Amino acid sequence: MATDLLSIRPGRASDAAQIAAIYEEAWRATYQGVIPHLALERMIARRGTAWWRRALERRSATLVLEFDGQTVGYAGYGQSRMRRTPYQGEIYELYVRPAYQGVGFGTELFDMVRIKLMDHGLDGLVVWCLADNERACSFYLALGGKPVSEGIETFADVTLRKVAFAWASSNRSS
Length: 174
Prior knowledge:
By secondary structure, this protein is of the alpha+beta class. The protein is 34% helix and 32% strand.
């Protein structure tokens, strides 16, 4: 998708620093006080520019959203890790800089990922998020996602509940 101010394109190795910054900003804004401080800092440090450069050089399926020439969001996606379910595609992560949340950029990324998954023959979609991330849970519910599974994620000595939201087909209205 491209307009005068908004574009979504495949991520490139040259995007690594911007994607790492978005990841850091989003995780700090969302999980400070939820995930123990040291565990959060380690996760952010692990997913820095070098990590992203390697991932993008390996051609990980990543879309970058630019607004007015600035990278403000990204999404990583691919084949679902939930085997033996009707959900063939998965959004591994979708983040928008906190200053740009709430204006529809996440929806634009989500919709483009669904198109890309369908283009790759992957029907149905699942995305996991921490239940304590109320904003993300509300976002996926508003897009028509249905909670289909739960699990846990442990960070240091804190165990948090996670929820899988799913869409039965790549048609967003489903």
